[in-house]
Write a structure and sequence with these properties.
mainly alpha; flat
Amino acid sequence: MKKVSQSIDDTLLDYLDGNLNAADKSKVEQSLRNNKDWQNRLEELRMVSIVMNETKLSQPSKNFTQLVMGKLDQYPAQHHFPIWKGIFLLMVILLAVGIATVLVSSGAFDNTTTSIDLNQVYLSKKFINEPLPAFHFSGKLIVNIIIILNLGLAWILLDRTILKPFFQRRMQGQH
């Protein structure tokens, strides 16, 4: 079955609803006699119309809003993450940052380098004809990036587990 256009769908819906004048109605009926796709689509639309007319929309009770709003304060908000776990996790992150900082400052990663040679990666030669570059990374740079990411994580953790609950309790105490 071919897909029927939106304008034909609209015309068929108007035909089903009885919204067409006599001339348009006779044109649609003539097209329905000659076109099997129109007949099939009209039957589909008729079935959908029957189902939609039989479906009863459920309505909430008249005091639904008052019931919901009345129960909002019934259950106090729970802390999802205990403060002591946040402090412990923050201490572990700061310890890892401290150890990494001591190792970087003592020169443990100065001689550590690695390189990634893209020519060793198998790529089809029909796309790339020229040699690809190689990238060199120093261990010190990688560890410094890890330290910065850990410090960012520590700040987020400090905010979520210590500062936010502290200021929330302070705001609740003022009311």
